[in-house]
Amino acid sequence: MKLPERILNRITAVSITAKTLGMVTGVVFILGVAVMLQVRARLERELRADLETRGVAIARSLATRSTDPLQAGNDSVLRQLIRDTLENNPDVSYAFILDAGGEVAAHSFNQSVPPDLLKVNMLDGAQSYQAQTLQSEEGPITDIAVPILDGKSGLARLGLSHQRLEASVARITWELVGVMAAVLALGLGAAYVLTRLFTRPLLALVETAQAVSRGDMQAKAPWYMGDEIGELAASFNAMTADLDRSHAELLRRMSELSALDATATAISVGQRLGEVLQTALDKVLGIMDLQAGWIFLNGEEPQSALRLAARSGLSAAFAGEEATRDLGQCVCNRVLQEGRALIVRDICAECASLSPDLIRSEGLVTHASVPLAAGGRVLGVMNTASSQAREFTPDDLTLLSVVGRQLGIAIENARLWEEVKEKETLRQHFLERVIAAQETERQRLARELHDEAAQTLTALSLGLRRLQDDPNLSLPQRKLAGDLKSQTTALASDLHRLAVELRPSALDRVGLIGALGQYVQEFKRRYSLEAQFESDNLEHIRLSPEIETSLYRIVQEALTNVARHAQARSVSVLLQARDGQIVATVEDDGKGFDPAQVQAKGRLGLFGMQERAAMLGGSLNIESAPGRETTVFVKIPLSIS
């Protein structure tokens, strides 16, 4: 912040009293100084003019009386005239007479007339007098020259000191300063009194505003006068009254929102249905200052009995009777049937299905019942009760109804979620059985290919070799037998590879790491790709058969996709254990793809990989994009066999 701004901020930050007193002081001071300077200047001009007029008169009198002595050459008379002039006129500082030749005939100086004085104020003969202000050691002096007999006989000169004039001006100036000080004091006193009268209601208004800002909505600004400030105070009081009403309404709305938020939070964090119902019930009772509440729920089947799902503020005896009684014509039953809120103003008189003694011992007088509804169905009833006669306002019923609708949705969602979990459990169980059956079938096919087809092809290869070596056959026949033997050997090799892919025996012999290492080397040889396999922190760990089989199949499918679609030059497989998980990473430098688009097409290979990972509580993520490398991440919770 710049210096002028800081100064301006400090000036504007002072109180109104200080500002008013400062303005009064400034105005009085400026006016006083202006008046004083004007009066001083006017007085000084008047006194100077008067001094000059008196000086001219004195000089003319001296010139008139010195005419005869000067012509007679009577110097003693001239000196006496000068002495009389100085004695009778205290302002005259000096006087001297010059003859017609300009020589000094008489003077009042101790020695002689100063030469410099003789050179100034030389009178022209045509003038009746001449005045000139000179500076001396004593201060300003008005030198006046008057001719004697029109200058024919000489010249009379005298000097008038300004000391008495300046003393008079100074005295009058100080008198004016005193008057200005007195006026300033009176003005400040009057300004202070008036300012206090003006600022007192404003300060009271400020204190009231501060009290309101601290939360005291009952604070009122005092009324002093019927002027604009009084109108401001009245308007402020009206505003605080409106603010108090708005504040109360806002608190009520905030309480309602708090209840709704508590209910929504309990629902959103995945609490169990009983916890959701209890949380919402406790919050509603606290906000509405009610003493007790309980919630009934319908069974999922039609015509099923109500059950007490949550309660608060009820004794065990009351809760037990509520949980077992037949509703019949009870209000709760009407709420269930009609689907609208109802109020019981006197429980003892209107609720005949409950024991009056039990109601009185519980101390409950009035209660309101609201339906818990969702999807056009009433799923339960929420009752809230007060220990004293109470009128439930429309706002109260609105809050209870909104909470009831939220709880109805929560109940419906909880039941749907239970259904989903049951179906998911069945689906998971079915999927496990399908995969287990698939692996069993793979193992059977691999064994048949290895034991039956491979043996048959081996026998066929041996027979063709004998034909190839039979000298009784012609050369073309032996060559044909050799070609058939080569094809049989290649077919046997392909059958062996297929049997290994269906169920690699290495997975049973050396575990997942050894089996994947062999598969990656075979993959590298078959597809002529740079392929690497690494493992970390798994050398001395043997995983459960389910994890080993699933990870092997997932990596196998990922590498198959690389060979078929990626157009990659290299691929790497990393298997490691970290943070309680086993993580498999398959990364290639191929052309990439859009994972979202592939998933939308429902590719069975990718779907199978995801299902295998999910079945073991893990996850599969793919990072790729067209023109970029592809990375497959598989994370499965570590389970050591």
Describe what this molecule looks like in 3D.
- The chain has 641 residues and is of the alpha+beta class.
- It has three domains: 16-173, PAS domain (Beta-Lactamase, 2-Layer Sandwich); 254-422, Beta-Lactamase; 511-637, 2-Layer Sandwich (Heat Shock Protein 90), CATH 3.30.565.
- It is 61% helix and 17% strand.
- It contains 19 helices and 15 strands.
- Strands 2-1-5-4-3 form a five-stranded antiparallel sheet. The chain has a five-stranded antiparallel sheet with strand order 7-6-10-9-8. It has a five-stranded mixed sheet with strand order 11-12-13-15-14.
- Strand 12 and strand 13 form a beta hairpin.
- The longest helix has 76 residues, at 394-469.
| Total DSSP E strands | 15
Main sheet characteristics? 5 strands, antiparallel
Alpha carbon gap, first and last residue? 73 Å
CATH superfamily of the largest domain: GAF domain
Provide the number of structural domains: 3
Oligomer: single chain
CATH architectural group of the largest domain: 2-Layer Sandwich
